[in-house]
From TrEMBL:
<protein>
    <submittedName>
        <fullName>SAM-dependent methyltransferase</fullName>
    </submittedName>
</protein>
<dbReference type="InterPro" id="IPR029063">
    <property type="entry name" value="SAM-dependent_MTases_sf"/>
</dbReference>
<dbReference type="GO" id="GO:0032259">
    <property type="term" value="P:methylation"/>
</dbReference>
<keyword id="KW-0808">Transferase</keyword>
<dbReference type="InterPro" id="IPR041698">
    <property type="entry name" value="Methyltransf_25"/>
</dbReference>
<keyword id="KW-0489">Methyltransferase</keyword>
<dbReference type="GO" id="GO:0008168">
    <property type="term" value="F:methyltransferase activity"/>
</dbReference>
<dbReference type="Pfam" id="PF13649">
    <property type="entry name" value="Methyltransf_25"/>
</dbReference>
<feature type="domain" description="Methyltransferase">
    <location>
        <begin position="45"/>
        <end position="137"/>
    </location>
</feature>
């Protein structure tokens, strides 16, 4: 049983409307270019494919894509956009679910690795990616850098969005490496706000690199965004690419 929290029907139905910025050409174009180049002439597998924000668009670029998704409700929204023959999706968790065939690319975007709330499960995610990859194939993760530099002594909360329709802040358990994202979202025009929260296990890049080595993967590159900006100590997130080490 995975520790990941499962998206409800209500959350799945409003997901695309609340993530319009992440679905914009400005965000998607460099993401798709980066992933398509790594996929080459092979197949791509998206862990936690959700409603298909990236997977459907990558398929439209001509890359054969399959997906794994834990929430049947999220997959149902995806299915309204594309049929099973065009983009097959296996319902299950990304640590154990198997998809037939081999892939040149497995990818996991938008902080989704942090949905796995234990180190063991995150290691198994890397192992599952490696099982699906051809020798030399790549595993790509997009994930934020833990915001601990913004925590002065005694403080446990960090705001990440203060706008007219949304207030967002993270609270951090420094011992358990658990971050809880809190959201207050304006729901309609009558002044009401909807409160949501989600738990995440954060990991530093070096810890992810060790997970990769356990799975037989080796770091190829790490950049700060899909445009390839160099990763520095001030980067808010990273795109990391590991390749599968050929056996023998």
């Amino acid at each position: 049983m995975t520790s990941s929290e499962v998206w409800s029907r209500a959350a799945a139905e409003r997901y695309d409307a609340e993530e319009t910025e992440m679905s914009s050409d400005a965000v998607l174009a460099p993401t798709l270019a980066f992933l398509a180049e790594l996929a080459g002439d092979g197949r791509a597998l998206e862990f936690a494919i959700g409603t298909g924000r990236v997977g459907v668009a990558l398929r439209e670029r001509g890359v054969p894509v399959a997906g794994i998704e834990l929430s049947e409700h999220m997959a149902a929204v995806l299915r309204r956009k594309v049929d099973e023959d065009t983009l097959p999706v296996a319902i299950g968790d990304m640590t154990t679910t198997a998809v037939p065939g081999a892939f040149t690319l497995v990818y996991l975007v938008y902080n989704t690795i942090t949905n796995l709330l234990t180190q063991d499960e995150q290691v198994e995610c890397f192992r599952n990616a490696a099982r699906h990859l051809e020798p030399g194939g790549r595993f790509v993760i997009e994930v934020g850098v833990p915001p601990l530099r913004f925590l002065p002594p005694g403080q446990v909360a960090v705001p990440f969005d203060v706008s007219e329709r949304h207030l967002g802040f993270d609270t951090v358990d420094l011992v358990g490496q658990i971050l809880v994202s809190h959201h207050l979202t304006r729901d309609g025009d009558d002044g009401r706000y909807r409160r949501d929260s989600s738990r995440h296990r954060y990991a530093w890049p070096a810890e992810l690199d060790l997970m990769a080595r356990i799975a037989g993967l080796e770091l190829e590159c790490r950049v700060a965004d899909w445009d390839g900006t160099p990763f520095t100590q001030d980067s808010a997130k990273h795109i990391s690419v590991w390749h599968k080490i050929p056996s023998g």
